Amino acid sequence: MKDVRLMLGPLSVVAMSGTAAAAPTKLKGHHYAAEAKVSLATARQAALKARPGTITDQELEKEKGGSGLRYSFDITSHGKPYEVGIDARSGVILENVAESKNPD
């Protein structure tokens, strides 16, 4: 029985940590994916490292700044909404700000 508990411990941690990162499975703007050099998974990791919380929305969009193509993540952190932008070609964090009262 001891071996079973040792095996379940790490699995439980992985499952619990995956919950915080759980997010929409669809990507708005997926038609731009061929132009991105950074994968959605890598961009999500970078966004959550910059602003720990729960991703509630994700989009790949053309927008000024950086290379002009960015992943945009809405993240709820400590009960407040934030927007984190990751350049889809370089992986650079372009934006990490509290959402305004009139989000995009």
Secondary-structure blueprint:
Layout: H1 2-21, H2 40-50, E1 54-62, E2 69-77, E3 80-87, E4 93-98
Antiparallel strand pairs: 1-2, 2-3, 3-4
Largest sheet: 4 strands, antiparallel
> Total strand count, please?
4
Count of alpha/pi helices: 2
Rg of Cα set = 16 Å
Instruction: Measure the end-to-end span.
Output: 53 Å
Task: Estimate the strand proportion.
Answer: 25-35%
Mean pLDDT over all positions: 81
Mass-distribution shape: globular
Strand order of the largest sheet: 1-2-3-4
Helix-and-strand structural type: alpha+beta
- Regions with pLDDT < 50 over 5+ consecutive residues? 1-21
User: In which range does the helix fraction lie?
Assistant: 25-40%
> H/E order of the elements?
HHEEEE
Describe the structure.
This protein is of the alpha+beta class and 104 residues long. The protein is built from two helices and four strands. A four-stranded antiparallel sheet has the order 1-2-3-4. The longest helix has 20 residues, at 2-21.
